[in-house]
């Protein structure tokens, strides 16, 4: 008799019904009005999905935060250091352009802030660590904006290291999607949060190790938990083009917008341009840099064609 070898997977897979049961009575603290403010353009999250997906996830995260805090106290005890010193828990949210990671990050931010313990929760995006457009232009990288090389990675790693070290009042550069650039002189302040949520395209990427074997830190080394928002490429492409069309009808009409030049295009010209951007920029970045990091996530949210989440995949401990 042929013996079938068991397939060993590092993940548990849950249907939505199975995952929703893990809510275990966690109360919903968001209203429909809250979700209206939190959802991204063209990302129709419902209150039902928030209850079925994000309440179980925040319950899981509360267990992870408690476990990491206990580990930090045990380490401090061993090293004879202050056991009461707080080490922020860093949660990363990654995925493709237009997949809905911003909505995921904002919903988690809102829910985590409303835990009974009222933790201080900050949210930053990696956009602020993009090189300014003038530098990207000097280096010939404007058409690779969003690729790993378009970010000031040493500055981002330094920021995460300072957060973990408890540094006060860390300045994070502000990025404007209106002008499509880092805003010089504008910063947000991160000051010893209990939880820091970081949202970005390439968060889970490990990078290349130096041939000398010299120790080097990557952004992913600082994450306590990583979420990857996943979907089929064809669906993400469609969502990107739908969002582009809606932006043409709204934000692009602002004369101050970097993309104002595209507002007057015909629908045919706009769709041709959007497809070119997808094919030449977003798709290569997804295939070469973002998608290969999916397996490094602690939890994967798998989206269906209508943007709803159809499966949850959790890494085994």
Features:
alpha/beta, two-stranded antiparallel ribbon, seven-stranded mixed β-sheet, Rossmann fold, 37% helix, 317 residues
Give the SSE layout:
Layout: E1 11-15, H1 16-20, H2 32-38, H3 47-78, E2 89-95, H4 101-113, E3 121-125, H5 133-138, H6 153-164, E4 170-176, E5 181-190, E6 195-199, E7 225-230, H7 233-249, H8 267-290, E8 299-303, E9 309-315
Parallel strand pairs: 2-6, 2-7, 3-6, 7-8
Antiparallel strand pairs: 1-9, 4-5, 8-9
In summary, what is this structure?
The protein is α/β, with parallel strands linked by helices.
* H/E topology pattern: EHHHEHEHHEEEEHHEE
The largest beta-sheet arranges its strands as: 1-9-8-7-2-6-3
Report the mean per-residue pLDDT as an integer: 91
Instruction: Work out the number of β strands.
Output: 9
State the low-pLDDT regions, or none: none
CATH homologous superfamily?
P-loop containing nucleotide triphosphate hydrolases
CATH domain topology = Rossmann fold
Return Rg in Å. Answer: 21 Å
What's the tally of helices?
Answer: 8
């Amino acid at each position: 008799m042929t013996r079938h070898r068991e397939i060993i997977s590092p993940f548990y897979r849950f249907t939505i019904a199975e995952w929703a049961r893990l809510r275990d009575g966690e109360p919903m603290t968001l209203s429909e009005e809250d979700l209206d403010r939190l959802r991204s353009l063209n990302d129709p999250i419902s209150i039902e999905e928030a209850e079925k997906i994000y309440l179980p996830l925040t319950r899981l995260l509360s267990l992870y935060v408690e476990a990491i805090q206990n580990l930090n106290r045990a380490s401090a005890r061993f090293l004879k250091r202050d056991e009461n010193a707080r080490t922020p828990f860093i949660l990363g949210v990654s995925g493709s352009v237009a997949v809905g990671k911003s909505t995921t990050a904002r919903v988690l931010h809102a829910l985590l802030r409303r835990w009974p313990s009222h933790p201080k929760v900050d949210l930053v995006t990696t956009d602020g660590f993009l090189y300014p457009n003038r530098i990207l232009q000097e280096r010939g990288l404007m058409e690779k904006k969003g690729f790993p090389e378009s970010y000031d990675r040493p500055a981002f790693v330094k920021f995460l290291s300072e957060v973990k070290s408890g540094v006060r009042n860390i300045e994070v550069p502000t990025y404007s999607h209106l002008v499509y650039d880092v805003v010089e002189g504008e910063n947000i302040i991160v000051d010893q949060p209990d939880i820091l949520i970081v949202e970005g395209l390439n968060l889970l990427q490990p990078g290349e190790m130096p041939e000398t074997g010299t120790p080097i830190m990557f952004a992913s080394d600082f994450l306590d938990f990583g979420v990857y928002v996943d979907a089929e490429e064809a669906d993400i492409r469609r969502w990107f083009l739908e969002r582009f069309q809606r932006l043409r009808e709204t934000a692009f009409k602002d004369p101050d917008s970097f993309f104002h030049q595209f507002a007057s295009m015909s629908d045919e010209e706009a769709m041709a341009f959007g497809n070119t951007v997808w094919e030449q920029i977003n798709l290569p970045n997804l295939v070469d840099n973002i998608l290969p990091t999916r397996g490094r996530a602690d939890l994967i949210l798998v989206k269906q064609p209508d943007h709803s989440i159809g499966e949850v995949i959790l890494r085994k401990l």
